[in-house]
Known about the structure:
The protein is α+β, with helices and mostly antiparallel strands. The chain is 48% helix and 18% strand. It is globular and about 35 Å long.
Amino acid sequence: MIRKAVTTRRRGFILTGATGVTSRDSTFEAVEALLDKRLTGFGELFRMLSYQEVGAAAMLSRAQGGVVRGQRALLAPGSPNACRLALEKLILPELGHVLRE
């Protein structure tokens, strides 16, 4: 699924879920292997904002951002609250800027 996303012509994509630390959480590794550039600030800011809502459990998130073959890739946890947080506080406010760069 991830390889299909990066071979389809688009400016970017958002993936949600499977970003934790259990054995079935492999989205981070799959995306990390494809990144040409990393947007480390996305994950750092997500964990900072998440900490304000869920406390120390925020450190278990492996939210990630980067560029894959010229496409912006954002990876967020799959819980509804985490998706809302990522969209409202990080993705939507900067979407235009991220896509223009």
